[in-house]
Amino acid sequence: MQLFNFIIKLLTTPPFYYWGLIALSVGLPLSEFLTSFSQFFIGGYWLLSGNFSEKWKIFKSRKEIWLIISIWFIHIIGLAWTQDFDYALRDLKIKLPLLLLPIFIGTSELLKPWQLKTILQFFIMAVIAGSLVSIFVLLGFSSREITDIRNISVFISHIRFSLFINIAIVVIVYFLQTKRFSFSQKHKFLLTLGLIWLIIFLFILKSFTGIVVFSVIAPIILFIWAYRNLKKIYLVLIMGLSLIAAIYTFRFVHEIYSEFTNIEEVDYKKLPIRTDQGNFYIHDFSNMQVENGHYIMLYICEKELKTEWEKVSNVAYYHPEKTVKQVKYNLVRYLSSRTYKKDASGVKKLTKEDIEKIEKGASNYKYYGNSFSHKIYDFFWQLDSYVNGGNPTGHTLTQRIEYFKAGWSIFKENYIIGVGTGDVKKTFEKEYNRTNSPLDSERRLRAHNQLLTFLLTFGVLGFILIIAAIFIPVITSKAYKYYIFNFAFLISFISFLNEDTLENQAGLSMFTFFYVLFVLGISDKTINKE
Questions:
Q1: Which terminus of the chain is more solvent-facing, meaning fewer CB atoms within 10 Å of its CB: N or C?
Q2: Closest of 468, 421, 469, 425 to residue 447, by C-alpha
Q3: For residues 273 and 257, is the Cβ–Cβ distance under 8 A?
Q4: What values do phi and psi take at 519, rounded to 5?
Q5: Using the 8-state DSSP alphabet, how is residue 112 labeled?
Q6: pTM value?
Q7: How far, in Å, CA of 241 to CA of 140, rounded?
Q8: Which among 227, 225, 116 has a CA at the least distance from the CA of 177?
Q9: Taking a C-beta distance cutoff of 8 angstroms, is the pair 72, 98 a contact?
Q10: Helix (H, G, I), strand (E, B), or coil: what is residue 291?
């Protein structure tokens, strides 16, 4: 009995709450299990530590807690017009941190400066550790097969990890320039190395979302740094460099776009009817898709393509069970990009390197692999293909267009109170079936836009209440004056435009942790408002 009392006393001392927050900060980028376990740990501390009368007083006095947890209760209200309660209960379970963390953190003792500093340091180390593991995977020190550079993110999705990388970059920059937290020169040197490495790794990971977020926050960070140094030369220099970078980026994208849209002139009346081997060509004049400005659906003889391809490669020309990334489609695009005819003569012109690229999924000899230029080109190609009636299945950008169209249509039909907490999935399924969506069944997903998801789930009324519940606590607590919070909030909000961030554990935990930590977990004495 004495041992039991000792353990309970040990578990209810403040350091265990603090270590629970550290575990949560480490789990976010590295482990969904640790993310969940640490929240149970924090909850266990909160229950066992007792003192509920004091916690109740704090709860009543901090209106920010009420507002934040109201988001979860709006989901409860949404059950009133829900039919699919299995989905609704799963959704409520995922969103439990929105109910519990504000209560646990908001009614516990405020963090001391050194505690916040340590929590954020552990977060940085966890992100760096995750990036190093990814590099080991990329270099082949694991059994994981890498067919896409994004697969090197082994703990969480590459998009979510790229967001954590950006937040870690912000925290490091803050540590390097703040006077609130002191660091030795050796420590600052290590932080600087960590900063440089994370920026490099972000581009190695090639997460388009992560790079876009970095492109948004980097100029802001530089401008704030220059402004605080109160030297006009720094401001002018930063603005000049930002302008040069913007011009270079515009020219870079414009060159790719120009090459894509510089379409060859074709005299359709003079197109040959037969190949050199005497077989008939197919010239599909109804399909205007291009590759490097050359029409894809001209000069096609599939009989010769299949026969000649099977002579030079062991990779099947066509897999009946596959729906995307078939060799037959990549081969036609690749040959078009090289201006080769899609027949035996075209395949014979391919080099060994060309064949290996096609086998690995390349569809253009210039824009291959995971280069940023390839991603830009692929976006243009996806849009062109979509406009010309191509199937968006398997294409990130055009799939999202289909998701948004379906979501917006659902919202327009249910704009007052939405479809309810549990009927989102089934309503999307009905909408895809109603419109006869070209998306394959396994690709028929939700909106991939958190704001639109709120709108179609709870209507305009619920959307306004949720947005108010998110922004009002930021204003009343004056968390908007915290450097790290502002950037973490901005990064989360950008992700709202591209992902259903709060509809999965990793995204919800990311948003809730940093939001609640700075809105409810600290005071003016903990960190400078700057």
A1: N
A2: 425
A3: no
A4: -80, -35
A5: P
A6: 0.84
A7: 38
A8: 225
A9: yes
A10: strand
In this predicted model, which residue has the larger pLDDT, 435 or 369? 435
Report the C-alpha gap between 473 and 465 in whole angstroms: 13
**In whole numbers, what is the pLDDT of the chain averaged over residues?**
87
Question: How far apart are the C-alpha atoms of 203 and 235, rounded to whole Å?
Answer: 26
Model confidence at 64: pLDDT above 80: yes
The domain segmentation of the chain, as residue ranges, is 2-249+438-520, 268-369
Answer with the residue of higher pLDDT: 337 or 514: 514
* 501-507 average pLDDT score: 90
DSSP collapsed to 3 states, 371-420: CHHHHHHHHHHHHHHHHCCCCCCCCHHHHHHHHHHHHHHHHHHCCCCCCC
**For residue 24, what are the contacts with CB-CB under 8 A and spacing of at least 6?**
34, 35, 38, 39, 42, 509, 513
Q: Tell me, what's the pLDDT at 397?
A: 86
The conformational region for residue 522 under phi > 0 = left, psi -120 to 50 = alpha, else beta, is beta
d(CA 442, CA 445): 8
Q: Does residue 406 register a pLDDT over 90?
A: yes
Q: Which residue has the higher pLDDT, 504 or 141?
A: 504
Q: What is the pLDDT of residue 10?
A: 45
pLDDT band at 6 (very low <50, low <70, confident <90, very high): very low
Number of neighbours of residue 262 by Cβ within 10 angstroms: 11
C-alpha distances in Å from residue 500, one per residue of 205, 213, 319, 432: 21, 16, 32, 18
**The pLDDT value given to residue 325:** 61
Nearby residues of 89 by Cβ (< 8 Å), 6 or more positions away: 422
CA gap 81, 93 in Å, rounded: 19
Report which of 409, 488, 484, 482 is spatially closest to residue 452, judged by C-alpha positions: 409
Residue 341 has pLDDT above 50, yes or no: yes
Residue 155 DSSP code = S
Backbone angles phi and psi of 280, in degrees to 5? -80, 140
Determine what percent of the chain is predicted with pLDDT higher than 90: 50
CA distance 312 to 330: 15
How many CB atoms are closer than 10 A to CB 112?
Answer: 15
CA–CA separation, 120 and 485 (whole Å):
12
pLDDT in tens, 376-391: 888 888 888 888 777 8
* Contacts with 306 (C-beta within 8 Å, 6 or more apart), sequence order: 317, 318, 328
Instruction: List the structure tokens of 378.
Output: 């692929």
Pair 335, 365: CB distance under 8 Å: no
